[in-house]
Amino acid sequence: MANPVVETVNVTKTYNRGKPNEVTAVKDASLKINEGSLVVLKGPSGSGKTTLLSLIGCQTKPTRGEVIILGKRVSKLPEKFMSLHKRRHIGFIFQHFQLIAGMSVLDNIVLPLIPEGISPKERRKRAERLLEQFNLVHRRQFKVSHLSGGEQQRVAIARALINNTCILLADEPSAHLDSRLTSELLDHIKQLKKSGHTILITSHDPIIYQNPIVDQVFEMKDGRIISS
Amino acid sequence: MILHPWILGLIIGHSALLLVFSLGVINAWQIFRGWDYNSAEEKQFLLEKKTYLVSTVMKFALLIQILMLFLFEMAADELANVLPGAMCAVGTLSSNSYGFSLLNLKIVSFFVYFIWLMINYLDNQIESYPLVRKKYLVLMLIYPLAVAETILIFMFTFDLDPSVITSCCGSVYNEGSEGLGGSLSGAPAGFILPLFFSIIILLLLNRFVFNRRDTEKKGLGNFLEFPLWIAFFITAIVVIISFISTYVYEILSHKCPFCFMGTEYHYYGVALYLCLFVATATGIAVGLLETIKQPETLKEKARLLQKKMNTVSLWGMLAFVVIGFLPFVTYYIKTGRLI
Predict the structure, then answer these.
(1) The architecture CATH gives domain A4-227
(2) Which of B45, B124, B129 faces A61 most closely, judged by CB atoms?
(3) pTM of the entire structure?
(4) A77: closest chain B residue by CA
(5) Which residues of B touch A78 (CB under 8 A)?
(6) Does the predicted interface ipTM exceed a cut of 0.85?
(7) Disulfide: which of A90, A159, B279, B290 matches B317 by Cβ 3.0-4.6 Å?
(8) Residues 64-103 of chain A whose Cβ lies under 8 A from any Cβ of chain B
């Protein structure tokens, strides 16, 4: 039996606690994701998918409950240790890519390596490998703002993988892609799964969650996981 | 009270720090009472957020409190210009009964705050907040020091009267005068110097002989650091007043431990005291760090810090001896005799 790489136990996240605009985005969410599996969180907009993904991705802390990544209770870690854990083990692909527009493809990809103190030579070496893998070699020095949506998507994936992370989280990765690019994205995801990555995707796109490569689908509604 | 920028600075500075400290202590009490690391409840998450804020704020507040010791000396030196009879900080401090009490309290606080900062530093190095309750307990225990400091600063500054003639350092630190200053100035070099160097030798023996043996004895050796460094600090102060000052001023009757902190002496005293305070604080820390045994990750970090403190304290002590005895050596080489 595979080991759970990601686990959440009764996780709740409330924003604006005690204020009139208080909202509980995730309620008592519990899930387990095994090593090397591809899991999709599906649900309508506002169902809490992105918040749950952010909690698993150590972007934010829960209001209550536990998030356990690779056996470590990350929800209990002080900020600096949580950031360290995130940098070393989790790659995150954001819905709007969050690339730095004024910087080149290469510079965007190597960015997560800088706080790790990795030498420029090693940074370049790792980046070159990913540029090749994602067919971006010819775009190396292009500013990301000059790239197409599909290319930006690939840069975002490369950046998420540069730290040799074993967990990859993607927030609505097909939201801005046409069907051809979505199929290309699925090919990349397939490759990553084959290479042993544990992948968690939020999506309400049937092309993604109905794809046979997906191992498990969790459905969310009003902040709760209603089925798996 | 004299309306002087330094006095206003001291009052406002201490009041602001006490306010921050008080808020820190209120939060420290909440954290101390409610802390349950294993809980995944909302209350614990809020406390974890709070401890991050409180420890950061207190770190800066206590660092400033430490700096206040030096600012206080500078203020006292500056105020000597408006107090009749005063020549340097000694005149200001001895112009009322609170001056030296405040200075002594500030010296004690310096070491206590340093220890808290060290505990805080260690706690922030480990993922599981192992020292949270202890560090906030210590913070609450040292709070009265900050309160006493602020009360004394008010009493001291409000009691400063420019119409009252105060004593100058020459009369306070004079072998013939009564009181602690006179006794310290009159400490015979034939007694205090051998005692001072004996303590240094004991410290070095403890470091390089005792501490290289097996773990149990090493632990005991580290515990000994604490009383030895306290003894080092006290004897060093006596050596400064009774011996070093004579060769700095090259006058037998002038033994002021403050005058040489000014521009006329190229801030010689600042360098001297800085070495003494740093060496003592880090030396005391070596002994205290020995008490940390659990958990293993914390112990490892404590040992690493202990090593660094070891090095800093030894270099600090060496620098103190070199800087302190430089005027004596220079004088002896120049004249071929002693004062």
Answers:
(1) 3-Layer(aba) Sandwich (3.40)
(2) B45
(3) 0.84
(4) B127
(5) 48, 52, 124, 127, 129
(6) no
(7) B279
(8) 64-66, 75-81
